[in-house]
Amino acid sequence: xxxxxxxxxxxxxxxxxxxxxxxxxxxxxxxxxxxxxxxxxxxxxxxxxxxxxxxxxxxxxxxxxxxxxxxxxxxxxxxxxxxxxxxxxxxxxxxxxxxxxxxxxxxxxxxxxxxxxxxxxxxxxxxxxxxxxxxxxxxxxxxxxxxxxxxxxxxxxxxxxxxxxxxxxxxxxxxxxxxxxxxxxxxxxxxxxxxxxxxxxxxxxxxxxxxxxxxxxxxxxxxxxxxxxxxxxxxxxxxxxxxxxxxxxxxxxxxxxxxxxxxxxxxxxxxxxxxxxxxxxxxxxxxxxxxxxxxxxxxxxxxxxxxxxxxxxxxxxxxx
Amino acid sequence: xxxxxxxxxxxxxxxxxxxxxxxxxxxxxxxxxxxxxxxxxxxxxxxxxxxxxxxxxxxxxxxxxxxxxxxxxxxxxxxxxxxxxxxxxxxxxxxxxxxxxxxxxxxxxxxxxxxxxxxxxxxxxxxxxxxxxxxxxxxxxxxxxxxxxxxxxxxxxxxxxxxxxxxxxxxxxxxxxxxxxxxxxxxxxxxxxxxxxxxxxxxxxxxxxxxxxxxxxxxxxxxxxxxxxxxxxxxxxxxxxxxxxxxxxxxxxxxxxxxxxxxxxxxxxxxxxxxxxxxxxxxxxxxxxxxxxxxxxxxxxxxxxxxxxxxxxxxxxxxxxxxxxxxxxxxxxxxxxxxxxxxxxxxxxxxxxxxxxxxxxxxxxxxxxxxxxxxxxxxxxxxxxxxxxxxxxxxxxxxxxxxxxxxxxxxxxxxxxxxxxxxxxxxxxxxxxxxxxxxxxxxxxxxxxxxxxxxxxxxxxxxxxxxxx
Lengths: 320, 469
Prior knowledge:
Chain A is an all-alpha fold. Chain A contains 14 helices and two strands. In chain A, a hairpin with a 2-residue loop joins strand 1 and strand 2. Mean pLDDT of chain A is 84; it is low at 1-21. Chain B folds into two domains: 45-178 and 335-403, 3-Layer(aba) Sandwich (D-Maltodextrin-Binding Protein, domain 2); 180-334 and 416-467, 3-Layer(aba) Sandwich (D-Maltodextrin-Binding Protein, domain 2), CATH 3.40.190.10. In chain B, strands 3, 6, 11 and 12 form a four-stranded mixed beta sheet that branches. In chain B, strands 8-9-7-10 form a four-stranded mixed beta sheet. In chain B, strands 1-2 form a two-stranded parallel sheet. At the A-B interface, helix 1, helix 2, strand 1, helix 3 and helix 13 of A face helix 1, helix 4, helix 5, helix 17 and helix 18 of B.
């Protein structure tokens, strides 16, 4: 007979050593069963979401990793080692696409990060018609992206587009906008900023409204002007939101596709708007090379994940 | 202190189970792509050669049934199904229609990958390699013969050749085209040009484009693509027309020569010296058609069915268009559409598919070649496309087409009376076109373009693409 124990054993008995003593009930299973019973309704509600995520999000991710190391020839799927990655790195447009994507991200940060913040600052100062102005700023977000992009296609037309007409009114020379490799990328960024800044503006505005008025009053008493108040009060008080949106902006802009695809046909003048995601699209849907598309997608994922991790760590270190 | 009832080993076990399940799921998914799911035809190839037993009962799914918006075409489809069912009363034709084009490359490649294509599916001539790579089409060589397709001997051998690989037949044609020069007759007349004799050399094209652009009001004389890989496609067509090659017999880029440079220089001159190509560039398929349909463009390289698109979708008038041969006339890019039959379906289904395609797309006087019906339904008759018959079938079809023409067929006389040899697309066509697209977009958007440097870079990149496996 087993000696009585004050604490139940956590290990199973080896097979064939049963001496007829009553089994000690395994507390882990019991705890698990109790936990399941206690949250049965919650688990039932979760099942749908988990299945959806599993099927439409996690499974495709796993498949992408698998595809990146496979090739299909004459209907036979085989492991390809690193050959898809070699193909991608040997593509003459590989470096160009990364350069263009980096340029778009940089310009989109300069414009798309600063402009909504400045607009939010201005909106925050208004005492009248604030709701109307907010709606006005948010309106472009409600337009379908394709409609917005096509609108800009007409604005940018070098012959009779709105922008060149406006330049003419002020006696300025007409620009080629999307038709020149010098201005095509900037034109994409302007369109993208207009389309997307509404959401960022509202988030900034909400953050600005949480800043206590006393801080500004104290700064004024210390003789701070407008810029100093923004630098010493507004930015530190909204740093968390700014960091978050900065990160999200980078992740979103590095995946740019709709704007170049619709405005410049993808590659643009002299290939100046070929982006990484457009290259992925070309591999998958024009070249039928899903392996290469998955490989480049994986490279992009690694870059974005690495960048995100570094940034989050930096941010955490700053806060500590 | 634990926050939940899960111990560390338990959590590890759960994680291991989850990862194993995902791995198994992935491997299972990979397994579905193997080529072992072919249902062999009972009775072997001798059995395959015999026509379908009229008593056979089955359901056949078929791509590209006209959508409800195309009433006349849908009516004809239903009539053809009824005709088919007179011979094969137990076969159900389950037509699948798609809005817009029958085949959109992104949807098509995804469909092949998912193996969700119907039993009989629509494909471009150039899709054969990618379909076979995805194990998507059945070898129908044994099923197609003089008994099952009576007009087989009269189908252009060049067309049949592109539907074969290693001497095995994988598709049957539904339409084919040879590229030529599409003109706006109204603008030709306004510019003092003769629309009955369209330009046949690039010197003549340049001269005519200059005169048409001289009409002003934003009218361009000649238009070209330079985006979405279509620019590379047209650069290829133009080089072919001048007798050049894109990829030589040695498998390397062959366009960086006097011909390739002459083509590039001519486009550059029309764009920047003559200013006869309009200001808006980076155009792709669909853009030039809109310009021409609204009388803003005088000429562009196209296949005859672009006219149908402009009339049916953009409201233009057939009488306003004409066609000439490909400038240069040394060769022209040719292509077309076909139907393939899904690999793995039963032998009877393949026979039924061949019988349906024979009726619908391969018999003079029937299906798509029933020109009297087409005319009665208010659809156009008289375009020089499809044109894949030769011999007696061609004679019969030409006569019926002329008898029921609903448009001035003499507008296409310059095109039909000056047939130019067809030439297939280069290997790795889309990847090569992507590189050549940059050549076109640079020529048409950069006034300081250095043609020698441009073609040197493109040659190097195309060689890189061709060597990249």
